[in-house]
């Protein structure tokens, strides 16, 4: 079949500089460790490289750079492979980075054996992001931590501190309790079991 008959996603790449290869680690190792570590220790182990990071972070090429209880920072360098068809970084990429910052900020406050899941993510895109922006910082902080839910926010800024996106998220928290005989649940973040909703 001639290349002209193929959809764009099936056509060969004319520019080798626009090819990308990456690898990732088996997420099961981190998931197994999450049950025995408090959130800050778990995230610090990922930052230190003693536990593997999220495969998604490899896919989108963002990395954790600091963690403390209630706050985490990721860094991210926009590149052409993050672009949408109109020449700027796709909003879904920025949302994924902000969602990770919010979720990990909440995770950093949790004791061992406690799990969580995101209920929502609200994001405002304030400026277009392109590769010309350079290295960016996304800081997630917990704004409220309750017994059953937590609120967090994320700020995506450039090296000068200019704000490009702002997000808020609500996370539901599942604290360990007595297991009922025959109960079962769905796996939440960190690979732990959470009760079925509804």
Describe the structure.
With 198 residues, the chain is of the alpha+beta class. It contains 4 helices and 8 strands. The strands form 2 sheets. It has a 6-stranded antiparallel beta sheet.
Structure at a glance:
By secondary structure, the chain is α+β, with helices and mostly antiparallel strands. Helix content is 20%, strand content 31%.
Which structural class is indicated by helix and strand composition?
alpha+beta
Percent strand: 25-35%
What's the pLDDT, averaged over the residues?
88
Number of strands: 8
Strand count, sense and barrel status of the largest sheet are: 6 strands, antiparallel
Q: What's the arrangement of secondary structure elements?
A:
Elements lengths: L27 H7 L4 H10 L6 H6 L1 E7 L2 E6 L14 H17 L7 E11 L10 E10 L3 E9 L5 E12 L10 E3 L5 E3 L3
Antiparallel strand pairs: 1-2, 2-4, 3-6, 4-5, 5-6, 7-8
List keywords for this structure.
single chain; 198 residues; alpha+beta; Thiol Ester Dehydrase, Chain A; 6-stranded antiparallel sheet; two-stranded antiparallel sheet; 8 strands; globular
